[in-house]
Specification:
15 helices, 3 domains, alpha/beta, about 475 residues, globular, Aspartate Aminotransferase, domain 1
Length: about 475
């Protein structure tokens, strides 16, 4: 539960960010705010200090607190323009290096797309996990827990599948629990889905830029990737995809429909409906990565493309890794007409998840506190985004371009002319800052002047330190290259 001073900050901050309070406009006095919200003066002062830290208000001597003039944010990157031909994927070792570096807590971690985990919900989940483990050892328990430490068989724990089916209603998807297969995270769900609908040598259409884990999966299965132009706000280009379907023998299409990684794009509902019809008509399976959808800053969770699927052509993949805890390794796939094939592949490849984690996840979802947790982390990520964008406007060179995502916790940034992302990556490492270079997010490694940044994990103090240092490093590289 958020502290009272954080509620004060949210109350005033939301008025500023929504435009109700304008730049240079005086905010409520400390006493007025205390009376209006029914809190102490010291609570309001702490809330106003937090707003100052977030660069939303400023104190003027003998006058009070005023809305701080917000800096103009750089524009978003242009729609990508990848080379549109099927390419054999070879990702190299950089992705492994990024993940290894993400475990080093001596560094400011802006590289890996991992969520904030020092939250009450994760502590509650850990307590439930410990409770389930203790129950396993009790012979006189009332519930049959004999095989808690064992592996369940696909499709996985029934109670957990029921809870997931209930949550999918918010995505516009109505499925029976038996249509869901529990997986070890979303990555396994994506790999199983790809394996189910393709054969080695087939061509898969993907967004560009694209999550490197997806590209690694395509490489592992011996598939070719066809990169499609993608907009930072509205997602994949429908016209470019339509042309690609006519020119190339595409077997499947993989899309992160809501707050994609790394762009943060969210496909509008009308375009989702067109996509579902287009791919169905072309006989192309659609694998939908919906892992970030519940991290929408809006009150309404976006629909999944699966909600427009009438024939089982969409395989919907997601997990609790971004919304709750990546260590839980609970994912799922609604496999449509490939359900039996996915179940068989799951059984052959890894069996089911351990029963203890599935039971714990189901019990946590039963507590009814997940929605409150989501509200808290959405607010946290939104505040972190606003703060980090302001820091970037202050400290980075002016000719960058950057996304302004409406959900999730990552930014995609085009570097100044002549600044190579790998050069910046290695120099940032010497300053104990981890970033993700753009080379990772394309099969042709074309995003050499882009980086991805995670603003969700680190403290405001570390975000400020990173922004200052990264800005300095960019300017050093620009000077060396005489830009």
């Amino acid at each position: 539960m958020s502290k009272r001073y954080e509620q004060v900050a949210s109350y005033i901050g939301d008025q500023i960010l929504s435009g109700l309070l304008k730049a240079d406009e005086r905010v409520l006095s400390v006493r007025q705010c205390a009376n209006e919200l029914g809190v102490s003066i010291s609570t309001v002062i702490r809330g106003y200090e937090l707003l100052q830290d977030r660069l939303l208000i400023e104190s003027r001597p003998q006058s009070g607190f005023y809305v701080r003039a917000q800096l103009d944010l750089p524009q978003a990157p242009e729609t990508s323009a990848p080379e549109q031909r099927p390419v054999k994927v070879s990702m190299g070792k950089l992705a492994v290096q990024i993940l290894q570096n993400s475990r080093d807590r001596k560094r400011i971690q802006l590289a890996a797309a991992l969520p904030k985990i020092d939250v009450p919900a994760v502590a509650q989940l850990n307590r439930i996990m410990a409770q389930v483990a203790r129950e396993q050892s009790r012979a006189n328990q009332m519930v049959d827990m004999d095989n808690l430490a064992d592996y369940d068989s696909p499709p996985g724990n029934e109670n957990l599948r029921c809870k997931i089916a209930q949550r999918l209603i918010n995505a516009g998807v109505s499925v029976h629990p038996d249509e869901i297969v529990i997986t070890s995270g979303c990555q396994e769900a994506l790999v199983l889905s790809l394996n189910a609908v393709t054969n080695p040598g087939d061509t898969v259409a993907v967004e560009s830029p694209n999550y490197y884990g997806m590209l690694q999966a395509i490489e592992t299965l011996g598939l070719k990737a066809l990169e499609i132009p993608t907009d930072a706000e509205t997602g994949i280009s429908l016209s470019a995809l339509s042309l690609a379907l006519r020119e190339w023998p595409v077997t499947a299409c993989v899309l992160a429909t809501n707050y994609s990684n790394p762009l943060g794009s969210c496909i509008p509902d009308a375009r989702k409906k067109k996509l579902a019809k287009m791919l169905e008509a072309a006989g192309v399976a659609l694998i939908e990565d919906d892992i970030n959808a519940e991290l929408s800053y809006d009150h309404q969770r976006p629909k999944a493309i699966k909600s427009y699927d009438k024939v089982g052509n969409v395989l919907l993949c997601s997990s609790l890794s971004k919304t709750l805890s990546p260590g839980l390794r609970i994912g799922w796939v609604v496999a449509g007409k490939w359900l039996e094939r996915v179940q068989h592949l799951k059984l052959c490849n890894s069996g089911a998840n351990t029963t203890i984690t599935m039971v714990a996840a189901a019990r946590y979802l039963e507590t009814g506190t997940f929605e409150r947790h989501l509200r808290q982390v959405r607010q946290h990520y939104k505040q972190q985004r606003d703060y980090f964008l302001q820091l970037i406007s202050q400290h980075f060179p002016s000719d960058i371009r950057i996304t302004n995502p409406q959900g999730g916790f990552i930014l995609w940034l085009r570097l100044p002319e002549g600044v190579d992302s790998m050069d910046l990556y290695y120099r940032a490492m010497t300053e104990n800052i981890a970033i993700a270079p753009g080379n990772l997010f394309s099969v042709t490694q074309q995003y050499t002047n882009f980086i991805r940044l995670n603003y969700g994990q680190e403290s405001p103090q570390n975000l400020e330190k990173a922004a200052i240092l990264l800005g300095r490093l960019m300017r050093e590289l620009m000077a060396e290259n005489k830009i």
